[in-house]
Design brief:
The chain has a single domain, classed as Immunoglobulin-like (Sandwich), CATH 2.60.40. The chain has 145 residues and is of the alpha+beta class.
Length: 145
């Protein structure tokens, strides 16, 4: 029961931040408070043209090198390639962007999808740091019988 509650909380956080980031991307939220007081991490997901239909729920995150989330994870939405994450700064160290199959997903046939990009240094308020993720295409993953 405890695991189900944790997954439910993570799912609700992902839905909230997905709605928030969509509104931010569409310009319905004023970006000026974030640009002054927060660090922005812009994660761009580059799927190959031959990726085909994605049948598993994917999650995009930004963490420190130890794997601690710096902002709530966001659900991957096919057709959307930019995901924004915010953190209070300044921060010194490393940040890693990830895309992977959502934790707790069971059932279905999933092609393993993962990708990472990392940066190190001083991350300053009011600046945007871009990460590029290139998950492997379906054709690059061997099929099993």
């Amino acid at each position: 029961m405890k695991k189900a509650a944790q997954i439910s909380v993570i799912f609700m956080m992902m839905l909230f931040w997905t709605d928030f980031s969509l509104a931010l991307k569409q310009g319905t939220i004023n970006e000026s408070p974030f640009s002054i007081t927060m660090i922005r991490y812009e994660v761009i997901v580059h799927f190959a043209k031959d990726m085909g239909q994605i049948t598993c729920p994917l999650v995009v995150t930004v963490t420190d090198p130890e794997g601690n989330l710096i902002a709530p994870p966001q659900s991957f939405i096919p057709g959307r390639d930019i995901y924004n994450f915010f953190e209070r700064g300044p921060v010194t160290g490393g940040r890693v962007a990830h895309i992977y199959i959502a934790p707790g997903f069971e059932g279905g046939t999933c092609v393993p999808v993962s990708g990472t990009d990392s940066k190190k240094g001083i991350f300053e308020n009011g600046k945007t740091y871009k990460f590029n993720l290139y998950p492997p295409s379906v054709s690059a993953v061997p099929k099993t019988l």
